[in-house]
Amino acid sequence: MQFFFEVAINGLLSGLMYSLVALGFVLIYKASGVFNFAQGSMVYFAALAVVGLMDKGLPMWAAIIGAFFVMLAVGLGTERFVLRKLVNQPPIALFMASIGLSFFLEGLGPLLFGSEVRAIDLGIVDEPIESIMNATGIGISKFDLFASGMVILLVAVLSAFFQWTKIGRALRAVADDHQAALSLGIPLQHIWAIVWGVAGFVALVAGLLWGSRNGVQYALTMTALKALPVLILGGFTSVPGAIVGGLIIGASEKLAEIYLPPIMQDSFGGNFGGIEGWFPYVFALLFLLVRPEGLFGEKHIDRV
Amino acid sequence: MSRQRTIGEVILDLQNISLSFGGVRALADISFDVRQHEIRAIIGPNGAGKSSMLNVINGVYHPQQGNIVFRGQTRHRMNPTRVAKGGIARTFQNIALFKGMSVLDNIMTGRNTKMKRGLLANALWWGPARNEEIAHRHKVEEVIDFLEIQHIRKTPVGRLPYGLQKRVELARALAAEPEVLLLDEPMAGMNVEEKQDMCRFILDVNDQFGTTIVLIEHDMGVVMDISDRVVVLDYGKKIGDGTPADVMQNQDVIDAYLGTSHQEM
Lengths: 304, 265
What we know:
heterodimer, A: mainly alpha, 0% strand, B: alpha/beta, Rossmann fold, 2 domains, 10 strands
């Protein structure tokens, strides 16, 4: 039972890191109705920017600040040179553009900041916390706990920003109805620029955490795709949904990895490993059949 | 009409506006003006170009020809953000509220152009930004009182009945303290009581705030009751312009829209 809890808790914590990537998707989807395929590439790009700037001799804190401005530039550039040209185009056109953007970033990043695999050392070791270990026998990684704390903090700050400030309200207004927002004098471009800037910032935090865990490498973009099942579970438009979805995916994939192989071996024979890799997608697929709008997504009922 | 108002000078002048979408002529060489403090109605059959006209004023559509003079400034095309800042607010034919947000938040978005604090102050929920928010909340509460929607303040807009949604949309437009208010069928789909309420609110806005009102409406009784002057469109052309009484005598208008003259209105 102890082992079960250990697996579940560590799954939950690592799930929060998926939530972080999912959060980037949600922000942009909410405000501009674009499914931003490039979010994973932005995570990779941000992590590359950090290690790239450190290679140039900057201390870590300066590299992080530098990378923040790089991501801001990416966000503003995307609004200026991609989105602005595509105003009033169908969502599929914007989606295609975001695929283009992802190739662009995946090419530009290594070109600017080098392509060899490097590590980010945030100074927090990935080892169990002793006091908890001694008291309960459950091992919880310090790093995971730190990362979760960061995610929760970020989500709290963003939620407050969206809920209680003029700009947050304008963001929600734009997400809801472009026409009406325009008629109230809310400048769309301004708002999009802010959203992409914030999404860039979220990508940076995700890049830092994922980069220090798995190393800064191309595979980060693949890890980021794990955010897709999270979004399907949580709904594309909900920040709390991204969190809950991440928790469910994280815990279920870790538990499946441990407990499914023996069962499957018994019934089918053969060797089943790496369930973690595909389980979330299958889970999301099944979930789609039951609740296509996600746990927290908006259900659209159109009058016929 | 017993109300005492002084109709002022021309505040909005539309000069020879032509608008087409591809081969379809939505508006053909239309000119009319709107005077300060008046209630100006635009009527006409469906597809006559009434909403297109509002969209031109509000900068959503850009006419191929013609000029728009607003408060002495002549422009060929308007821009929605600038229009909003310049003091023109509007409502939509199909309610365009932010469905997921509360009534209060919806109305607060109307104050957007009046709030000056920047991104950073907002992000940090800094003193000045917070004070600003509170000051604007007061203003919004006044609008809420005025339109008698206190009881639904916190309700998400999507849950409200149609008539109240229309009222909230009016509140959001009023929150911007506009000089000119564009109303696109404010009474469509309402029952008699709701219509009377809406009429009363429109007249009150016009009286108490001196707001100029441009109104599209199908209910001829309402139009004749509350408007000072009426412009009639048909297939994108202007076929009548004048006081309600004039317009009702106009043979073109009767043929196109009102029906044959032997029917009692």
